[in-house]
């Protein structure tokens, strides 16, 4: 895994930005980056008409910050109702960036929503998340993607990552357990599962060869629900969510969403 922007990655990223940042959106991107980096010397005009180049001092984390901001700024171009030429241009740009980062084995890659960068993780884990996001409901997928990006994004937010992980699990669990509940939460679904534990099982057999009882699933949901210690500010057990906690919560959410989406959790026969 390559960290930072060594020479072989520095030039391709700067060239990508030359083509990604046009005069039309330079002002918006410049303002965004000045606020992010607390600098006002982000860009200098280059010799290519209608484009801007990065200041030669912008490298490493600040260069990735610029790439992250450009992805966020242009993401609207991926919508289906955008003018075709503009849409296709940004599809090509996004693919080109993905190829640059992949071939350089950069520590960063483009996220699922193509609106920012995320830290590269074990490929097997990343593929598993992508598969769950693809197969889950639209609501669960959206929250799970946000949870992943908040946990591994360029500017991680552990609290938001944990919150989105809980919302993703809610979106997968509630339709299976309490679909007609008036104001359902993950806590409500957890209580229902606890009260009806004997009615549920996991498709994985236990050591006796029988379907695993629901207590295993209930325990994981309970862990995720009560581990969100920043939910009730000011309480005696309140504390900030750490980066490690957020990452663990997101991976737990991936498992739970997959189980409830695939039917691995079912009513006991």
From TrEMBL:
This is TIGR02391 family protein. It comes from Sphaerisporangium flaviroseum.
